[in-house]
Amino acid sequence: MPDAIDQERVAEHQRGVCLFGYPFFSEKLLIPGIDPSRFLALIGNDQDGFKALPVMYTHGNQGNSNSKNLRKMIPLPLEETRSGTVSEHASRSRERSNGCADHVYRSNEEENWYVMMDNELADVDDQGWMYSWSFKAKHWKGKYGFVRKRVWVRLPSATPDLIRLGDLGSRHRVEKKATEVTGDSSSEDNWWDATDDLIMLLSQLRNCKLDRERFQFIDGVFHNLSKDDLVKLSTEPILSRVLGTFQFETSKEKFRNELKARISS
């Protein structure tokens, strides 16, 4: 595709932390007024550049014709009729809100969103995310950070640089299996990963203003960690550092009890 052709791109943003190799991120952790919104429409092309615009969207309202909707430019399943085709009213509203006569209704196959995996700005993980410590950062990487973003593209047909969201997991499983067989990771590397994970976990907990917010974040961490990782979390000095982020003794005791319950379950 020539660089000058306008493309439909959307940047997705989340905030969180990587803990013991697992990413715990959510759009619900974005800081209003500081972080960008969950989705930003990138209007333009590679040659002339892209302009970021907020995406307005409403779930559950089939055929919504909000003029600020930017043709529902969000990488989520389109609202469909029972027959599996996008409603005619919805297709007309998308054309009207975009205001471009050359954008016409396309088939479901052509409406698919794709994650951009070949990103020239930075390495990406198996889901297309690139990570950094701040959304204003100039340098992004394929792991570790407090914020992450990825770019979605909607094109008439797939290209080698794009992968369907439904197919993203298979490549990660193959690469993970190959790493386990070859044993590339050394004990020293694992030690450094654990240190980075602890630093990011403590920073995320300190950013929470209330113990209630800390427990909301911890619930997601507990849900995704293996029993071995939970045991590591219960050892010193990691446990003491985590407990030090809580304000009240009752909260510290609650954390200890929940951690013990998770390990023994």
From TrEMBL:
Compositional bias (Basic and acidic residues) spans? Answer: 89-100
In this chain, the stretch annotated as Disordered covers 81-100
The highest taxon in the source lineage is Eukaryota
Q: What is this protein called?
A: KLLA0E04291p
Q: Which organism is it from?
A: Kluyveromyces lactis (strain ATCC 8585 / CBS 2359 / DSM 70799 / NBRC 1267 / NRRL Y-1140 / WM37)
